[in-house]
Amino acid sequence: MQKSIICYNDHEVKEDYDEVSKDVINNGYNLWIDITNYNSSDLHHLQQIFNIDIDTIEKVENNSKKPQIIISGDNQKFTILLELRYKNLESLEIYPIYCFVGKGWLITIHPENVDLISRGRRMFLKNNKILNYSIDALYYSIITTVIETYEQLVTAIELKILDLEKEASRIPSRNTLNQLDLVSKQSIIVRRHFWHARDIINYLNKIEEDKEDIKFLGIVYDSINQLIDMVESYRDTINSTREVFSSSVSLQTNETMKILTIFSTIILPLSLLLSIFNLQGFDLNNITIIPKDFVILVAVMVTITGITLLFFWKKKWILSQQNNKLEHNSSTNNEKEDNNRENRRRKITIKKWKWGNNSDNDYVDGADGKMRQN
After folding, report:
1. Looking at the domain 2-248, which fold is it?
2. In the sheet that 77-86 helps form, which strands lie side by side, from edge to edge?
3. What value does the mean pLDDT take over residues 282-293?
4. How far apart are CA 91 and CA 182, in angstroms?
5. What interhelical angle do 150-170 and 135-148 show, nearest 10?
6. Is 103 exposed, middle or buried (0-12, 13-18, 19+ CB in 10 A)?
7. Are 260 and 187 in contact (CB under 8 A)?
């Protein structure tokens, strides 16, 4: 077992204790024990010294990663928090942090990848008011530092979404769509962990609202709510990115069809010309001689073209009067709207105009141009 022991009161902070004991508590000190690289025998040794609930010890042995809080006998609190780190789109790095809190003592157990002891030293230096309060103040401050690391995770996810949005607009591919699905799943997982953390903080705020130490936990509740709102907003961002992806694919398809259309427009006349000159009877050495069947061929081609145009006209695909009517109606409606706006504007700002030999009491109503009299 690798452990770090810190004892402190309102005057000093001591470290480098080797023996795990409650004697320093009787001398007026608060005791913090931070443990990594533990085994089952180490946990049961702590359980005997501090009279910890055996059920909570079993949760640590089973490496439980479900955020929760349990209040046991002697007002002991057992809390499971998760430190989340962004690894890649497919997975997150999840490290459980187990906190046991009793009267005057705090035990934190976590993997060696999490450095709580350095955070604790910085807390003592930056906010020495913790020394004047009970061990609960340190416990709440540690929860706060864990929640603050969530902002880095949310920022990493947000930056990845922005990169995917740029990729979707510039070079959309199947890989982009797959990555958007992964980000969507990851945001759901993160949001669920944030919900559990918020429940723990909310529970502590309610059961210990009368304690003065709870102020060290007050701000972090608002922070976790803001993080949850940010993660929920990513759903709309991801959906809008999917729409950008679809639009980009459509634009690429349109560009491809445009190129093919231009290519066909160039090739088809040449193919038709080549086909005509390949007809039997055409002498390329003397093109002034027209074969007798050429007139029949041209007549058939013109007939087929006429039938096709007639069919399109019957289907109202070309030369349709309905489209002209729609355009005419649209322009007429626009003119009517312009006239209505102008009339309303004239009604609002009615002015008196002299009309020939009429008196000053006569004026023209700009709404309809008729003579009015006061």
Report:
1. Beta Polymerase; domain 2 (3.30.460)
2. 13-14, 2-8, 30-36, 105-109, 92-102, 77-86, 68-71
3. 62
4. 9
5. 10
6. middle
7. no
Cα–Cα distances in Å, from 313 out to 305, 321, 324, 348?
Answer: 12, 10, 14, 49
| Tokens found for residue 246 | 């679809």
Angle at 75 between CA 69 and CA 79, to 5 degrees: 20
Name the band, by pLDDT with cuts 50, 70 and 90, for residue 105: very high
The least confident of 218-232, 235-249, 306-320 is 306-320
- Partners of 5 in beta bridges: 33
d(CA 348, CA 328): 30
Closest Cα to residue 147, out of 231, 229, 219? 219
- List the chain domain ranges: 2-248, 321-373
